[in-house]
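Backbone-to-sequence.
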């Protein structure tokens, strides 16, 4: 009897994808959930309830709630009633959603389970804010036992009515998917469960800090599933984000351990599964609530090694900032080659083998910026600086790429760093030569890159992320820097040097 629901779900998804334009679906951030992913998500719910109330925010064709209804009906101990509230305001998909709801009703009727499904053709954010806020004049709205969602992946315009409405409700987020998850969590009753599939970009960085802190205060994280290949999970939708599936329970008490699993694509029968201490994934002392995704023993080894470095940038007297020169805003002051009255302007294209090689002869980027009163605040006094790229391509071997700006190789009184570069400094001035060399070598080590990837699911390397990383002490950096002469050692030697320092202070 349960086949009645799911045997047509993938056909419905493919029919809708075939009848609609991918660019239009992308414009509203809509990516329908493949059946095997929906069934896996439904399997993550653990607590049995007699009266099940399911929320599906941004339901699409209804595959998520349908997968869970099928799971409930197929259990030995079935619930005595099932209610579904499905929010969807895309008129083009409503006919598919209504068909799915009818199939759920028919299946439950055959199983002798009272079922009531409600399709709400309204904006979920508006409705959820009204339901989740309680004051002297408004009683608390309805609450759900389960929320399952694949929310829209779309940035929220800072000037939009949606952004203003969310901010007024204390929900400060930059992407719709975070707003949907946050609001869904608020609509759960105590002990209620939430399963969602979203990009993993929320795991770190400043943009999702308020979301992480609020979500992890309200909910306990129980399970995270990662996809080793983003192309295989949503292959026919060409989704570019690295996605994760996660299961949370609305309760303040955190578990001692949580489950982390991973699969190459959506063949969950071949998943790698491990149980890890909760405080390794979310450190209770981390005010930013970064989520570290420790998938295997190699990841544990990375953590064990890097925690031997106990210094922070603040303890080292260092600061990391984003390059001050935004080239499209300063275009009139930029020059392709150096001329009188200009100073060097450094882009990532100037990074060559661990050092800044200036000027660049490629002709793709400017090499200089004019010194004028209008540009003075964009410039820094010459000195040793350590730079990292802010963006790397998915295909690049490394996420963190560092280079040394050596003033002796450039010969200019001032320098400008373009906005696609992060730079390490001491109160707006350069570092000592050996300290800069030690820092650059450490940043270019495999152990640093691997640890960074444990909590960073995107290609952007933010200054905020770099501030959160552990660093060797000043003495250790000076020892490491002694190995850098006029060139950066090769990768094998860099890793040998840093590993030796880890072992010496483990």
């Amino acid at each position: 009897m349960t086949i009645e629901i799911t045997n047509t779900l993938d056909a419905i998804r493919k029919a809708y994808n075939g009848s609609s334009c991918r660019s239009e679906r992308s414009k509203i951030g809509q990516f329908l959930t493949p059946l095997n992913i929906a069934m896996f998500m439904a399997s993550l719910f653990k607590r049995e309830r007699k009266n099940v109330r399911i929320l599906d925010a941004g339901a699409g064709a209804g595959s998520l709630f349908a997968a869970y209804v099928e799971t409930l009906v197929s259990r030995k101990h079935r619930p005595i009633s099932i209610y579904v509230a499905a929010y969807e305001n895309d008129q083009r998909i409503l006919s598919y959603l209504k068909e799915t709801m009818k199939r759920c009703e028919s299946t439950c009727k055959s199983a002798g389970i009272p079922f009531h499904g409600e399709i709400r053709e309204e904006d979920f954010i508006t409705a959820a804010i009204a339901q989740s806020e309680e004051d002297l004049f408004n009683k608390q709205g309805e609450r759900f036992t389960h929320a399952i969602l694949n929310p829209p992946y779309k940035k929220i315009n800072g000037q939009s009515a949606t952004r203003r409405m969310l901010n007024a409700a204390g929900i400060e987020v930059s992407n719709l998917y975070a707003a949907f998850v946050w609001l869904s969590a608020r609509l759960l009753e105590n002990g209620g469960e939430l399963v969602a599939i979203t990009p993993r970009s929320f795991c770190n960085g400043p943009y999702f800090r308020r979301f992480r802190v609020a979500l992890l205060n309200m909910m306990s994280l129980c399970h995270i599933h990662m996809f080793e290949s983003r192309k295989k999970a949503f292959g026919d939708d060409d989704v570019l984000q690295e996605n994760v599936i996660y299961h949370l329970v609305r309760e303040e008490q955190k578990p001692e351990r949580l489950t982390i699993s991973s699969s190459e694509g959506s063949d969950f029968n071949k998943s790698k599964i491990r149980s890890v201490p909760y405080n390794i994934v979310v450190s209770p002392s981390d005010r930013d609530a970064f989520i570290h995704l420790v998938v295997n023993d190699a990841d544990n080894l990375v953590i064990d090694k890097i925690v031997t470095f106990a210094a922070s940038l603040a303890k080292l007297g260092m600061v990391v900032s984003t390059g001050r020169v935004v080239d499209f805003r300063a275009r009139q002051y930029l020059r392709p080659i150096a001329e009188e009255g200009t100073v060097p302007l450094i882009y990532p294209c100037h990074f060559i083998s661990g050092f800044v090689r200036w000027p660049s002869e490629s002709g793709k980027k400017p090499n200089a910026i004019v010194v004028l009163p209008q540009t003075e605040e964009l410039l820094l006094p010459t000195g040793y600086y350590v730079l990292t790229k802010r963006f790397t391509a998915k295909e690049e071997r490394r996420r963190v790429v560092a280079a040394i700006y050596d003033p002796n190789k450039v010969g200019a009184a001032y320098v400008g760093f373009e906005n696609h570069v992060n730079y390490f400094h001491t109160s707006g001035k350069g570092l000592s030569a050996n300290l800069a060399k030690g820092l650059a070598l450490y940043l270019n080590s495999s152990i640093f890159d691997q640890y960074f990837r444990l909590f960073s699911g995107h290609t952007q390397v933010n200054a905020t992320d770099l501030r959160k990383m552990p660093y060797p002490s000043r003495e250790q950096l000076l020892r490491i820097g002694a190995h850098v002469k006029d060139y950066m050692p090769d990768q094998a030697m860099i890793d040998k040097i840093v590993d030796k320092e880890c072992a010496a202070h483990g």
